[in-house]
Amino acid sequence: MERLAKLLLWQLLLQQIPADASNPDSVVVSVLNISATLGSQAVLPCKSYRMVWTQDRLNDRQRVVHWDVYSNYYGDNKMERLCDMYSAGDQRVYSSYNRGRIFMPQNAFTDGNFSLVIRDVAESDEGTYSCNLHHHYCHLYETVKIQLDITKKAKEAKQYWDGEKAVIVALEGSTVMLPCVNRNHIWTERHSEEEQQVVHWDRQPPGVPHDRADRLIDLYASGERRSYGPLFIRQKMNITDTAFAVGDFSLWISELESADEGTYSCHLHHHYCGLHERRIYQVFVTEPVREKKVVNLTTHNTAPAIDPNVVRGHNVINVIIPESRIHFFQQLGYIVATLLLFIVLLIIVVLITRKRRQRGYEYNVKKYGEKDVNLKEFTVDTTDLTQYKSEDIRLDYKNNILKEKVEQARSFPAKNIDLDKDFRKEYCK
C-alpha cells in the first residue's frame, strides 16, 4: 500500500509539470506504470493517429471550409449545406437559388478570411449559420456559429453577443457578411510536413531529473532515424519501421535488466499541426516467479497399496521457508557469530591482563625478600625505642624510592649495639 501511494503521488506531480523544457506548449497526456519480469520483453505503447503521415499527393484537398445553416423557416428544422471550398480549388455553391447571391473571398486560404457574404437577404435566410474549418491531415476541426435574424426596420439592425455566439440582426434586402476569420499558419501557409514531424524517446535513470534525461531515439517522418548511447542499448531498444504509416511509435525493450528501470518519455512533435504531446512510463523490473517442482513417486498414476501390518510413525511436515526468510536467518547467524567471537576475544584479553599483574606482584615480593636480616644474630636494646614508637613520623615523599626506605625503616627499627659491654666481658676473663 505504501508503494502504491508513492506511485499515485508521483503521477500527480508529473501531471503538473511541463512536458518538455524545449517545448513549453507540450502537455502530458498519459502516465503509465509498466512492470515486467527480468529477461523478458517490454513494450511501452505510444500511439497517435494525428501523427500518421502518408505523403498524400492531394495536399490541396486536405484543407476545406464549408458553411451550413440550421433553419426552421419551412418548419422542417433541417441542416443545409450552403457552400464549401478547398485550399486550391474553386468554391462550390449547392443551391441554384444561392448561386451568385452567396460567396466567400477567393483568397480565403491565403488571407485567412472565410467570411460568408449574403446579398439581398430575405426572411428565409434566418437561422443559425456555422463556419466549419477542417484540416484532414492534422485532424483539426474548428467551428464558428452565428445567428442571423432579419428585420424590416433599419433602426433594429444591430450586432451583439448572446453569451454563446454572435447575433446579427440585418435589414431585409441588404447585404450582410457573416464573419469567420482564422489566420493560423496551418490554414494560410504551406509547409514541408515530413520535415516537421519528429518522435523521440528519453530515459531518466532513478534519481535523475528530467532536464538531464538521456536521449534514446529520434525518428523523423522523412525516414531519418538516429539512435544514441552505447551499442548494446541501441540494439535492445527500437521502434518499428512503419511507425509513421500507422501512428504506432511504441518502444520495444528486449532482455530486460535491473539497470533498465527508470522513467521513459515518448515525445510527439508535429510542428506543422501544432501538436506537442508527451507520454510518461515508469518501468519496474521484477524477479521471475520460480515454479515449484513436484516429484511424482507413483507408478502409472496409481497410489501404492497400504500395508495394514506396517506400524506407521508420526507424520512429518516439511516446512518450506521462503527465500527472503532464509536470507534473513543467514544474516542473523553472521551477526551472532561475530558477537560470540568478540566476547571470546574480550575474555582472553582480560585473562592475559590479570596473569601479567600477578607475575609483577610476585617479582616485587622476591626482590625485597632477598634483603631479609636474621635478628637473632644481634642483641637489641629496646629500652630507648619507646619514644620513637610513639612519635608520628611525617615525611614528604618525593618519590617512590624514599617511600620504600621509610617503609623499611618502620619494618626494621634501628639496633642499639653496645660494643663496650662485649669488650668488658673479654677483659674480665
Describe this structure in words.
- The chain is an alpha+beta fold and 429 residues long.
- Helix content is 25%, strand content 27%.
- It has ten helices and 19 strands.
- The strands form four sheets. It has a seven-stranded mixed beta sheet with strand order 5-4-3-8-9-11-10, with no helix packed on it.
- The longest helix has 47 residues, at 323-369.
- The model is unreliable at 6-22, 309-316 and 388-395 (pLDDT under 50).
- Its main location: membrane.
- It is found in: Cell membrane.
- Residues 24-151, 172-286 form the Ig-like domain.
- Residues 1-21 form the signal peptide.
Structure keywords:
429 residues; alpha+beta; seven-stranded mixed beta sheet; six-stranded mixed beta sheet; 10 helices; 25% helix; 27% strand; disulfide bond; repeat; Ig_V-set; signal
Quick overview:
The chain crosses the membrane at residues 332-352. It is a single-pass type I membrane protein. The protein has 429 residues and is of the alpha+beta class.
**Over the alpha carbons, how many angstroms does the gyration radius reach?**
53 Å
**Share of residues in helices:** 25-40%
Task: Give the CA-based shape.
Answer: elongated
- Overall mean pLDDT stands at 76
Number of strands: 19
Largest sheet: 7 strands, mixed
Query: What structural category arises from helix and sheet content?
Result: alpha+beta
- List low-pLDDT spans: 6-22, 309-316, 388-395
Put simply, the count of helices is 10
How is the quaternary structure best described?
single chain
How far the N terminus sits from the C terminus, by CA atoms, comes to 121 Å
Strand order of the largest sheet: 5-4-3-8-9-11-10
Estimate what percentage of residues fall within beta strands.
25-35%
Q: What pattern of helices and strands is seen along the backbone?
A: HEEEEEEHEEEEEEHHEEEHEHEEEHHHH
Main location: membrane
Signal peptide: 1-21
Domain Ig-like: 24-151, 172-286
Pfam families: V-set (PF07686)
